[in-house]
């Protein structure tokens, strides 16, 4: 399956919601500690080399995450290490980009998520302990959500309710928010160590997963969250990212500092249904295509982006 070699360390990979052959990759120089960043837009093709870069955008600081617009097929939003949020139009040449840049966060922006139901707004999560709500047509953020006591690593919209989102933080809590309410509506003390990622089940809007420095993934039901529905053990180090399948209710993908990507079925006893050891450095970015069932992508600090069909070896040509 296709492999793309980036000049910098991979941080995030996202399939386009409009084109099944398109994906975006966020990268950072020197492991994101100091240096530049780069966003790559890749196109998959049936023949060799299997993946080609259609356009790339240079940034003065690390890019930690990207999210495609749900309303404009060529637009993506980037979370940047200098605290900025930048919007790119991939149909325009690099000198014409970014088309917008917002500078509000006081520290690194670690995640960005476009609203899949309203399709007019997006969230950013930052190491300044806040989450911000934005709209494309507004000159500044609409609202700042400040309750977490430490870095917010990810904020994700509920797939069915356009006003509800979840946030995962280094303060060891998962919080549920409704933008119509003044504060968070639920606080789940999910792990004893930092929570690095969260995602909603695409078929049950009350179920979500968290991943942590404690090496586990936990699945929660917000209707009864005193104990998790499932605890998934199998990674050897911190679980950096967790993602629910857009096609199968109980399927979860994860990637870890143990350099592996895992697939889990949280409803069965032997939950690990796939393990991929193709990365040679920390695996930090994972995605599953909405448009092509079973198509996966991952990226890591080995500067590689792999795209493969579930059940196949990512390294196979």
UniProtKB/TrEMBL annotation:
First-listed, main subcellular location of the protein, grouped into a coarse class: cytoplasm
WD repeats by residue range: 102-144, 145-187, 188-230, 232-265
Gene Ontology cellular-component terms listed: cytosol; peroxisomal matrix
UniProt GO molecular function: peroxisome matrix targeting signal-2 binding
Location in the cell: Cytoplasm, Cytosol; Peroxisome matrix
SMART domains, per database record: WD40
Gene3D superfamilies to which the protein is assigned, alphabetical: YVTN repeat-like/Quinoprotein amine dehydrogenase
Domain of life: Eukaryota
One Pfam family it belongs to: WD40
Alphabetical GO biological process terms: protein import into peroxisome matrix
Residue ranges constituting the EIPR1-like beta-propeller domain according to the UniProt record: 152-264
InterPro entries hit by this protein: Beta-prop_EIPR1-like, PEX7, WD40/YVTN_repeat-like_dom_sf, WD40_PAC1, WD40_repeat_CS, WD40_repeat_dom_sf, WD40_rpt
Function: Receptor required for the peroxisomal import of proteins containing a C-terminal PTS2-type peroxisomal targeting signal. Specifically binds to cargo proteins containing a PTS2 peroxisomal targeting signal in the cytosol. Cargo protein-binding triggers interaction with PEX5 and formation of a ternary complex composed of PEX5 and PEX7 along with PTS2-containing cargo proteins, which is tranlocated into peroxisomes by passing through the PEX13-PEX14 docking complex.
PANTHER family with a match to the protein in the record: PEROXIN-7, PEROXISOMAL TARGETING SIGNAL 2 RECEPTOR
Family: Belongs to the WD repeat peroxin-7 family.
Protein's name in the database: Peroxin-7
């Amino acid at each position: 399956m296709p492999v793309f070699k980036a000049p910098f360390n991979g941080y995030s990979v996202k399939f386009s919601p409009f084109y099944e052959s398109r994906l975006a990759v966020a990268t950072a120089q020197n492991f994101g500690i100091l240096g530049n960043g780069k966003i790559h837009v890749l196109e998959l093709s049936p023949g060799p080399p299997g993946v080609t870069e259609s356009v790339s955008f240079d940034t003065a600081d690390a890019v930690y995450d990207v999210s495609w617009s749900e309303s404009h097929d060529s637009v993506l939003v980037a979370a940047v290490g200098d605290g900025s949020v930048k919007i790119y139009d991939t149909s325009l040449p690099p000198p014409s980009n970014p088309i917008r840049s917002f500078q509000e966060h006081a520290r690194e922006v670690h995640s960005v998520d476009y609203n899949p139901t309203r399709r007019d707004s997006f969230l950013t999560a930052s190491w300044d302990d806040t989450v911000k709500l934005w709209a494309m047509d507004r000159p500044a953020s609409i609202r700042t959500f400040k309750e977490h006591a430490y870095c917010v690593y990810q904020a994700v919209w509920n797939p069915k309710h356009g006003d509800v989102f979840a946030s995962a933080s280094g303060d060891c809590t998962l919080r549920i928010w409704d933008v119509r309410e003044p504060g968070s509506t639920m606080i789940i003390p999910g792990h004893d160590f930092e929570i690095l990622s969260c995602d909603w089940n695409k078929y049950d809007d009350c179920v979500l997963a968290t991943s942590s420095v404690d090496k586990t993934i936990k699945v929660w039901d917000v209707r009864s969250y005193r104990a998790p529905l499932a605890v998934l053990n199998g990674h050897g180090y911190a679980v950096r990212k967790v993602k629910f399948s857009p096609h199968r209710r109980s399927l979860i993908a994860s990637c870890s500092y143990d350099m592996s990507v895992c697939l889990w079925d949280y409803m069965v006893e032997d939950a690990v249904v796939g393990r991929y050891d193709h990365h040679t450095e920390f695996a930090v970015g994972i995605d599953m295509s909405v448009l092509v069932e079973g198509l996966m992508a991952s990226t890591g600090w080995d500067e590689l982006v792999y795209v493969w069909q579930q059940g196949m070896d990512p390294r196979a040509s």
